[in-house]
Every structure is written in structure tokens, then in C-alpha cells.
Amino acid sequence: MKIAVCCETEDAGGLVAKNFASAPFLLMIDVEKNVIYHVYGKQDPENLVFADKIIAENCEAIICGPLERKPFERLAGAGISRFDGSGHKAQRAFIRFLRNQLPLIRDYIGGPGAVGHSHDLSCGCDEESDEKTSAPVLRKEAEDHLFLVTEEEAAALPDELELPDGLRREEIEEILRSYTTKS
Predict the structure, then answer these.
(1) Can you tell me the distance from the alpha carbon of 168 to that of 105, in angstroms, rounded to the nearest whole number?
(2) Sign of CA dihedral 123, 129, 134, 135
């Protein structure tokens, strides 16, 4: 599995950018190998190139700050989950992501949001969707969790976590669960 992180520096020690458009770097992470495998530098003011790279790399999620309308719609339309890690160092945001502790970004900056709520797959209001105002969110909230661990299991994880290379998702989940049995 691959994810992307919008970062202020070229490494995981930098902060996640405060919003998508202001991100100077995009870190591409292979979750199974636990490595940053590519770093892209800013290429356009709206970071639509970043959005296209995330889609082209088949990322399942992005950790970033709030998104502007165009990149949000492009990423949501491709089924990429968006998580708010702004204010955290990239490494810490990644760990919080593994623990399912980052909030899902459900709408773009200035979008309909909760007040004019979008009719995505998690909406249960039974109203007809108005395609002009609803953002194309393609995943249910339950599907936006990367690893299936309980809150207690996630809380027991250390802040620094080293995982061996070449693990499958199930093996990673087993390692994460093993930390709760060690205490």
C-alpha cells in the first residue's frame, strides 16, 4: 500500500503542510516496506501536479492539511482518502495514521461541509443528491481506516515503530496487536 504526505521538508522530520496548496514537498511512502520511496517538489501553485502524482502512484490515502476545491475533487474522485495531519511532524502524523487517529477530510476549503452537507456514501439523510453542490467522496468512513486495530491496541503502540521490510497488511496488523500483549 502506498500513501502520500504533504510536507514542509524533504524528510519525515518536517511538519505536514498547513494546507495542500502550500505544501512544498510530497513524500511518497510504501507502508509495507516502511520507507519513503520518492520525494516530489512543488510544481504548480495549486499543487494539481501533486494530486496527479498521488493518483498515478495508486496511493490509497494522503496525509495533508485542508484541501482546496480542485485537488480535493480530483483526489476524492479517484477514491483517495484524505487525512488531516496538519500541525504534526510527518513521522508523527504517519504513526497517528497507522493508529487511525487522524481525522478524515470530508470536504474542501469553503465547501458545503456539515452545514450544507455533501451526499457522499456516508450520508444517511435520504435526500436526493444535488450534483452541483456535493463533492465526490467515494469511500465509506469504515473503509477509511488503514489497519484494523482497536483503540486500546492503537494506544499501546510506541511513538517510534520499526517494521521489517516486505510485510503484508495482515502481518503488520499482527505486529501492531502484539504490542498490547507485551504490556
Answers:
(1) 27
(2) positive
List per-block mean pLDDT (blocks of 10 residues) for the chain, which spans 183 residues: 94 92 94 91 85 95 95 94 94 91 92 54 46 34 46 64 67 71 60
Cβ–Cβ < 8 Å for 61, 37: no
What pLDDT, on a 0 to 100 scale, did the predictor assign at position 130?
A: 41
Residue ranges of the alpha helices (H) in the chain? 48-56, 69-77, 90-98, 151-155, 169-182
pLDDT value for 155: 65
Indicate the pTM of the whole model. 0.64
DSSP secondary structure letter of residue 4: E
- Structural domain boundaries in the chain: 2-182
The CATH architecture of the domain made up of 2-182 is 2-Layer Sandwich (3.30)
Alpha helical stretches, state H, 12-127: 48-56, 69-77, 90-98
Backbone torsion region of residue 165, taken as left when φ is above 0, otherwise alpha when ψ lies between -120 and 50, otherwise beta:
beta
Gap between the terminal Cα atoms of the chain: 29
Distance CA 161, CA 133 (A): 41
